[in-house]
Amino acid sequence: RYLAVTGVQTCALPISLPFPGGESRKEVRDRCIRGIETALKIAEKEHASQIAFVVHGGTIMNVMEKYARPQGQYYDFQVKNGEGYVLNLKSKTENNQCNYRKCSFDKKTE
User: 3-state DSSP call for residue 83?
Assistant: First the structure.
């Protein structure tokens, strides 16, 4: 529909271009990171040993792009429904990157 209205193919647009009336990719990334960092500070204050986030794929990709080691690009961290990542915060580097592993959750797993 965007192509029909604007005459511009979306795949040729810069990734930072926001949807009409929406947030830019940077604004979304910054909001996701602020939310995760706020939750991590609360968890640390409460001495939580493990925490879980159930979020959309875009949030996962933004967080992993910032924190994953080895590093990757945004789309390197795409997940299917029921998939995600486990981050090991004890492995954090100076720039807050940490080791991770991909995981999958299905209805058969308890």
Answer: strand
Separation CA 59–CA 32 (nearest Å): 6
Query: What are 68's strand-pairing partners?
Result: 98
Q: Is the pTM of this model over 0.85?
A: no
In which residue are the tokens 């493990």 written?
Answer: 50
Strands 83-87 and 100-104: antiparallel
What is the model's pLDDT at position 77? 93
The two structure tokens encoding residue 69: 């080691």
Beta partners for 98? 68
* Of the candidates 87, 71, 81, the residue with the CA atom closest to the CA atom of residue 105: 81
Whether residue 89 contacts residue 66, with contact meaning beta carbons closer than 8 Å, is answered with: no
Residues in the chain: 110
Q: Is residue 5 classed as helix, strand or coil in its secondary structure?
A: helix
Instruction: Give the Cα separation of 110 and 98 in Å (integer).
Output: 27
Question: Hey, how many other C-beta atoms are within 10 angstroms of the C-beta on 29?
Answer: 20
Backbone angles phi, psi at 4, to 5 degrees: -65, -40
